[in-house]
Structures are given as structure tokens and as C-alpha cells.
């Protein structure tokens, strides 16, 4: 998949000017409220026209103001999942899903496959008002998939949902990414939600792109500021092995030295866990006889000051961010190049 755009659109407080070339990967579009994320969503989906510019998907031009090309939403091959889900209240879940393929000539994705993937079989004869918010969201995603899209565009998929619903939805979105191989473009003002699905982030502020790349590199370069965005560390874990009740040890992608990560659960053979920078303690030496299950050796590659705290960027085989006080930095003598140990509890890891 390739998506490219170079577009302009006047907004109330700024002129939106965005340009990018995205490859075959899942990408998060992140920025504060009012940054221009919803405008970008509307322009890509064909719900709004730019004042100037061009949009192309897989080499096919779908918008070009100069040539007066404006493909309607149903001909863009972009599956769209709205923040509000927008199921038809008078149609069953099955009828809502099937509505997605009404205008599709080349049906590359089958109804039965989507229903199985998203575990919707028990709900097919139900009406939208009789199922949960998470189930409605899965139905909305299924409807978008039946358009046989070349890309799936999701607007704030976790907005206004509680932690339990978020945990329910994440595995399904990862299935889309990993099993159907459909690139996702996720629009969100919540950076941790994006990080749970991808580390590739397109940063928007006041209608302009201020950074694009892996979030750890954006933070390391000073492009992205940690703290108020609630950045998390992500660990891609594989080969879980149960070693006790409520305790598993796993390999982490990137760790080739035999180091294992211990977690309180393992929902699949491969899965992603997150941990907040505040949950990682640092020590210059390994700490014996302690209840903390995980101690990863690493090297500090950067220090970023934020008010009275510091964010340590650490290469521990996997990149990690730890938040410490300025006092801790002085007492431990932590600087760029310092070798240390990252300590965190198994129960600090979250899906």
C-alpha cells in the first residue's frame, strides 16, 4: 500500500498544509484536539475537498484539485470507521455488515471470513441497540472491511471507551493488521492507544506535520515532547512459557541475549504489552533478592529534561524510556553512555 498526499485547506484558526508518503504499514496520526486530524480524516475519506492539492492511493489519484478529480467515498477503496460507529439502527448486525459490499465489484474479502475474524457470529441477528459498544464497533469495522479496502481509516477508535473495552478491541485490530495485512491509518489524540498498534507516528500541530517516524526516535530527537501525551513503552513479546500461577516468561523481539520478560498473563503466542516510563526504576548495579521480576541491562543514549524530571532514553536491546527525578540522576551519576539496569514489576506491564 502506498498513500501520498499534498493538500491544503483553510481552517478557522490556521491553514492546514499536510504532505506525506506512507508505505505498506500501520501509521498513527497524532496531535492535540484542533490540530487538524479530523480534517485530514475527512479529506482522505472523500467527505471534504481540499482547496488545493492531490491525494493518491496505490498510485491511483483519488483527489486532484488542479484536474478536478474528486472520487466519491465509495470508490476510493478506503474503508472508513467513524468515531461514532454509525450503524443503521433499523438493520440487524448482519444487514449492517453486508451493507458494506453493496457497491463493491471486486470482492476480495468474504463475509464469513470477516465474521469469523471479528467473532461476530452470535450477534448477526441482533439489532444495534441490543449489543454493547465494543460489539457495535466490531460490526462497524466488519462493514468497512466488506468494501474490500486497500486501507482502513479509523477515527479515534478508542475515544470515550473504558479500559475494559479498549482491552477487548485491541486484539481485533491487531488481527486486521497481522492476518488480513490491511494497512491501518489510526487518527487519535491519545498517543498510548496509537503505540499499542504501531510505533510509526505522523505528528500534527496547527495543521502542519511536525514529525514523522518511530515515536522513540521522535522523542529522542526532541520532536515529540513526553509527559502530557502519556507516552508508553511497548514490548512485542513472543514464545510465552508458564512458570507459575499468574506468571509467564517470554522472549522480546529485539532481545537476542537470552533475556526474558516476565508478565502476569500471555493472551497469545505473540502479543504487545506496554509499560509507563514512571514504572521503570533504574539501578547502576543488578539488584538481588528483590520481588521485582524484570531487570534489563542497557545503556543511556539520551536524557531529555522536562520541568523537574528527566526522561532517560535507554538501549536495552529494545528501546525504553524511564522517567526519573533530577535528584536521582545526580545521585546515580546517570549520563549519556551510562550502563545501568531497568527494573520493572511483571504487574506493571499492561495490554
TrEMBL record:
The keyword Calcium does not apply. Coiled coil: none annotated. The keyword Cell membrane applies. Residues 289-351 form the Mop domain. One of its GO terms (cellular component) is membrane. Gene3D superfamilies: 2.40.50.100, P-loop containing nucleotide triphosphate hydrolases (3.40.50.300). It comes from the Bacteria. SMART domains: AAA (SM00382). One of its GO terms (molecular function) is ATP hydrolysis activity. Keywords: ATP-binding, Cell inner membrane, Cell membrane, Membrane, Molybdenum, Nucleotide-binding, Translocase, Transport. It holds the Pfam family ABC_tran. Residues 7-231 form the ABC transporter domain. NCBIfam families: modC_ABC (TIGR02142). This is Molybdate ABC transporter, ATPase subunit.
